[in-house]
Design brief:
By secondary structure, the chain is mainly β. It is 8% helix and 38% strand. The structure holds copper (II) ion. The site of copper (II) ion has 6 residues, from strand 8. The site of copper (II) ion (CU) has 6 residues, from strand 8.
């Protein structure tokens, strides 16, 4: 996924260095972009890479992930630890590294401190990073190489000796939505998301409710009423899926072109992210849903590279989901949405 980058500086830079001074210890060299904070930067940034970060900061989400090699030459992210307000929620995630990687569920207004480690030892000189879309951050949390960000290679080298890189995300008002994150530094400055290093951030709205369709009318339903979240990545030849159970919050990787299951009458939410290079036309045959930001029903959605689409529906019957783009259809990009009988 090639990215367009917008660089936020200023207020969040101050926030970054003052509210989270400990975080800057990982940076090697000098920050040439933050002149205002140069005196502070000199003191903080000169510390060696890989120094243990002091626990003193205030991010609601404390996240540590590692990238690892898995079967078939794939690379994948694994959740090592996730604490929310000090509560350990790591058991929600797969114990293995998965494709797609862990889905990080946030709410507008949250702050995140995410540390990445690199367990891919086959290339000792190659960084792995986490570059995220949708949320706000300073240039030092962009997760790209210096050739792009002009300041620093913002990733982790292989984990000999505990090297890592830490990002700060500001999940500011207005960032609600479904966003991809992915590596940007392995092998090339385009990263290695085509080998599995990608995952999803879901930012739930601060209002606590989302627009939903029951097939004929539009309503607002509580996020808490959603029984399942399905995350579907659209590659060039397959969907890669995972799901989150609404009650237990347990995340389950579903593999390629997965069968999605729901009980009739349940609210379920689809999150589609296009990571390939082609235009996709998503259909959930027989269903209509609300085009986000509008009050319009749609029965298909064109999703180009890097684009996202999320919608909530009431499960009212089994259907196939399909990429109706002709060549993608020929590749077999389809799967089933199996709805068992329940309280309609
Ligand atoms: Cu991207």
């Amino acid at each position: 996924m090639k990215c367009q980058h917008s660089y936020a500086t200023g207020i969040f830079a101050a926030f970054d260095l003052l509210q989270y001074p400990s975080i800057a210890k990982k940076f090697r060299g000098f920050c040439i972009g933050l002149k205002t904070w140069s005196a502070l930067s000199l003191a903080i940034f000169f510390l060696p890479a890989g120094e243990t970060i002091a626990a003193k900061d205030h991010a609601k989400h404390q996240i540590e992930m590692i990238a690892e090699e898995i079967e078939d030459g794939l690379l994948a992210y694994r959740m090592v630890e996730h604490h929310v307000d000090g509560v350990n929620i790591t058991s929600r995630y797969s114990k293995q590294a998965t494709v797609p990687g862990p889905t990080i569920v946030l709410t507008e207004g949250d702050k995140v401190r995410l540390t990445i480690r690199n367990g891919v030892t086959l290339r000792p000189d190659q960084q792995i990073s986490v570059h995220v879309h949708g949320v706000h951050y300073t240039i030092l949390s962009d997760g790209t190489l210096k050739i792009i960000n002009k300041i620093e290679d913002e990733g982790a080298y292989p984990d000999h000796g505990g090297r890592f890189y830490t990002y700060l995300w500001d999940v500011a008002p207005g960032t609600a939505g479904t966003w991809p994150y992915h590596d940007h530094n392995f092998e090339t400055h385009n990263g290695s998301e085509d080998r599995g290093l990608f995952g999803t951030v879901i930012v739930n709205p601060a209002s606590g409710s989302v627009t939903a369709s029951n097939g004929s009318s539009i309503s607002s339903v509580p996020v808490k009423s959603i029984k399942k979240d399905y995350v579907l990545y659209l590659g060039d030849d397959a969907f890669w899926g995972m799901e989150i159970d609404g009650a237990s919050k347990q995340q389950t990787p579903l593999g390629v072109n997965p069968v999605l299951t729901a009980k009739g009458g349940d609210n379920v939410r689809f999150h589609l992210i296009a990571m390939g290079t082609y235009l996709n036309r998503f259909q959930l045959e027989g269903y209509q849903w609300v085009d986000p930001g509008t009050a319009t029903f749609i029965r298909m959605k064109d999703i180009g590279p890097l684009e996202n689409h999320a919608f909530t529906i009431k499960a009212i019957g089994s259907a196939n989901y399909i990429n109706a783009n002709f060549s993608r259809k020929l590749m077999g990009m389809r799967g089933s949405f199996n709805v068992t009988s329940g309280a309609h």
